[in-house]
Amino acid sequence: MYIWKYVKSELSSDEVLDYKESEINQKRENVYLFFRLPLSLEKFMLYGFLQCADSFLYICSLLPLRILTFLLKILKNPFKFFKRDLESSRIIDLTKLFLILMCYFLLTFIDTSMVYHIIRGQAIIKLYIFFNMLEVADRLLSTIGQDIMDAMYCTVTETKRSSLLAARHLFIALTYMFCHSIVFLCLSTTLNVAFNSHNNALLTIMMSNNFVELKGSVFKKFDKNNVFQMSCSDVKERFQYLILLLIVFIRNMAEFEWQIDQLFEFFPIMFTIFVFEFFIDWVKHAFVLKFNDIPTEVFNDFKLSLAYEMLESRKKREHFDFQSHSYGFIPIPLFCLLFRVCTQSIKLNNSLAYINIALGFVGLISIKILNQVILDGLSYKYLIETSLKDTEKKFNENNDHEKNDISKQNSQKSNAKERKLILTTNSPIKRMILYSNTTKILVKRPKILKKKV
After folding, report:
1. What is the mean pLDDT of the chain?
2. How far is Cα 179 from Cα 20, in angstroms, rounded to an integer?
């Protein structure tokens, strides 16, 4: 009997969703977030990628030109040069040149073919573990490298500096750069071994690494600062992967004597890797924002913050600490490895090769200038849009305040009229009725108890 009643109640019951309008909108926003996030995230990623490319291209193109023009000025008037102190920017440029040349000189003692064959003899599971260990080492070295490079730049540009202290910090910076370059060399060699294997080990390593990153990030508590750091780390990771795959591409093309047929084997794998990288970033950021109730508009705030920092560093002419502090990206070790691979893979046999190198250098300068123009335009665009939104918001707030003041004045006038009405009535009962109507007070008449006879 009870079972029949239960079944009957379940079949006849009507389920009613009693939600407020705000709760309904929130549930819709939780779904729309997954569709809006890729566009917002990729806009931020593109802006950050351009900033990392600007820092890397500065080392490749403008830094040699700055040093060359400085040396020409010294040759024109050497006595004037020795009489006055050097500018801090010139000291930093010469320090960077010294570190790059010394790091490149130390990398020439490493046999890359031997490193390749040592890594190639390992199993796929060992490659996977080794690749993850190298990524952790890269993050740790990037973190400590910021402090090392900042301390070194501050030491060599001091007005009253000690030569022994400057030499000590130069040695520490050179040791760091060499260790970081070795990590990048092992990473690129591991990718090269996986690329040359015939069982798609490269895709296996990269995809599994991305899914491990997804597992470690999604179910954690994040605030806006943590999301900003995670997004900047993803920007740096994308750019480093691009340079590492470029190194793999140069080494493989040099091995096959620059045959065009190798392009059709390399680019599909590279495209697949970046598609998975983009997809994992979308899923990771979408769930992080959903679990922590953070809107997608937070990426606009990130872009605005980076644009403001970039323009401020441009005014101060600081070419060394903006990208390292914001993204944790230090371009010199990666450039040293790329320069070492290019000099080892590209043979200069005739005059045509030197012409190609000159044209390539001019192309790098052109790309650097174009990238700088795009970055400045985007930065000023973000600042102008934000200022316009702020002025519009203030204007709307002022209008709302004026409307509230007008409504308050009207309500005060009506209350004053009602009070006059109450005071002008002669009957106390009418006064009580008017007072209760204006102040919304429920007035109950006292019950009159009849006396029993």
Report:
1. 79
2. 59
